[in-house]
Amino acid sequence: MLFSKFVFAFTLINLIAYAFAAISYGPIRKFTICKNENCESFCEVKKYKIKPGESIKTNECTEIFCLLNFSTMELSCGQEIVDGCLMQPDFTKKYPECCGQICTNKRN
Ligand SMILES: *[C@@H]1O[C@H](CO)[C@@H](O)[C@H](O)[C@H]1NC(C)=O
Known about the structure:
This protein is an alpha+beta fold.
């Protein structure tokens, strides 16, 4: 009984965490590198070069996708308040595990 309550609460917290995830779309950032006759195109965003259809997980707790049309999509944590804490990312982990890990400014 106690166990099932715990599992339920845990699932609920996970749902909340994902519900608050933020998506932002960037402009087309196409970058082409040619070596002799062979050219390859990437999305260039921040310091990253990403192949179309692929994504990378940054050290800033985000995941950046390079779409097939070379526009970019970035997933990041939303704001999450749990038990009076504004939860901040744990930057030692990758997205989405980094989201909402550290309690800041707890008031009571
Ligand atoms: C690129 O593709 C995405 C997903 O297919 C679409 O949502 C977006 O509007 C496109 N961007 C441009 C600038 O065409």
